[in-house]
Design a protein that fits this description.
Strand order of the largest sheet of chain A: 1-2
Helix content of chain A: 40-55%
CATH architecture of chain B: Orthogonal Bundle
Helix content of chain B: 55-70%
Oligomer: heterodimer
Structural class of chain B: alpha+beta
Distance between the termini of chain A: 13 Å
Number of domains of chain A: 2
Shape of chain A: rod-shaped
Number of domains of chain B: 1
Largest sheet of chain A: 2 strands, parallel
Strand content of chain A: 35-45%
Radius of gyration of chain B: 19 Å
Number of strands of chain A: 2
CATH class of chain B: Mainly Alpha
Structural class of chain A: alpha+beta
Largest interface: A-B, 18 and 15 residues
Chain lengths: 252, 120
């Protein structure tokens, strides 16, 4: 009986990665006690020894799920399943100061859906800066940008600029749909923002400066996104490699 | 019988465990077995996933634990309610009572007007 249970517990503890020998021994002992009681209970219900063992470990749950749930909070948490939590969190769902994942929630969030102060992703929702396919934030930059200052292919905001733009003020757009203010009527303190988001196409100097700014902005955001994406791919791959086989079978 | 959805259960597992421990100290396996037996068909706690909850509750000061020797000489960890756990349980039960009343009123409202405004 011990062989099967110990192999199962080895896997659980490998995923949990407790990093405290005494704590790990206590958890292992408690889980072993549970599994042995379960086996005895199953035997008394009529299961034979091997069947009881298999059912006991199966009922206990996948070693990956149980292991991750046992994992204590840590600075850097990387998971291939569930929610990663840490200062730096990487996983399918991630919550941390820096969160990277399918659904990421953090101060700096990178992911398919990213929610935070600074968010980068397919759908980026941010208190300050959002960049992505659909970006919603105080300053938003993306395919579809919604925000106080929105800049993108389609931009909607208080101050909006881009391909198609609508806003209280649209200082620059190929197709301005709606703009309450013009350069002459917009609040003076908005002008600085307006100059950043637009240019006079008849002035080669302004055009060049704007294109340089646009290029730099694009390069910076792409670099930040690429960094987040690379971190996710590399660290998730490493973690996946670490736990590979752990969940494959619980009785071999 | 409606089985409780995971999201309904998620925030209340601690309360269920606290309530189960009112009758006295118990260990993980027995807790899962008794809770699942008592609420059969409505909820099923995962056997392996109760331990992270117990450890979290212990860290929060809701539970205290002690090691007792079994008849076979084996060490077994027993959990019991800590004073903070009793307080939290009472608070949670009051919250649940209030929520139940709200839901009952909503339920009454949903069934009441339908019959009152029935043109037939």
């Amino acid at each position: 009986m011990k062989g099967t249970i110990d192999r199962y517990l080895d896997k659980v503890m490998a995923v949990a990665d407790v990093r405290d020998a005494q704590r790990e021994a206590q958890i292992r002992e408690e889980l072993r006690d549970h599994l042995e009681m379960k086996v005895e209970a199953l035997k008394s219900e009529g299961y034979d020894g091997a069947e009881a063992l298999v059912k006991a470990v199966e009922d206990h749950g996948s070693p990956v799920i149980v292991g991750y749930r046992l994992r204590p909070w840590r600075l850097v948490d990387i998971r291939v399943r569930g929610t990663a939590r840490g200062v730096i969190a990487i996983g399918p769902k991630a919550r941390g100061i820096v969160a990277i994942g399918g659904v990421a929630l953090g101060v700096f969030a990178f992911g398919g859906v990213a929610i935070g102060a600074f968010s980068f992703g397919g759908l980026a929702l941010a208190a300050l800066l959002a960049w992505g396919g659909c970006a919603v934030g105080t300053f938003s930059y993306g395919g579809l940008a919604l925000g106080f200052i929105a800049f993108g292919g389609v931009a909607v905001g208080i101050i909006a600029a881009g391909g198609v733009a609508a806003g209280v003020w649209v200082p620059g757009s190929t197709l301005p749909l709606a703009s309450h203010y013009s350069w002459d009527t917009a609040p003076t303190w908005w002008h600085g923002i307006g100059r950043l988001l637009s240019f006079n196409p008849h002035s080669s100097q302004e055009t060049k400066a704007f294109m340089t700014m646009l290029g730099a902005l694009f390069a910076i955001t792409i670099a930040i996104w690429a960094l987040g994406f690379a971190a996710q791919v590399i660290f998730t791959w490493k973690e996946k490699k670490r736990v590979t086989g752990i969940d494959a079978s619980i009785t071999e | 019988m409606v089985r409780l959805a995971k999201q309904t259960l998620d925030g209340n597992v601690e309360t269920i465990i606290l309530a189960e421990l009112v009758s006295g100290a118990n260990y993980g396996y027995a807790l899962v077995r008794e809770i699942n037996k008592k609420h059969e068909g409505l909820l099923a706690l995962g056997e392996g996933t109760i331990y992270p909850v117990l450890y979290r509750m212990e860290e929060k000061g809701l539970l205290k634990s002690e090691i007792r020797k079994t008849q076979t000489g084996r060490d077994r960890k027993y959990y019991r309610l800590a004073p903070k756990g009793k307080t939290v349980l009472q608070e949670n039960m009051l919250q649940w009572k209030a929520l139940t009343e709200v839901m009952a009123k909503i339920q009454d409202g949903l069934s009441g007007p339908a019959t009152a405004t029935d043109p037939a």
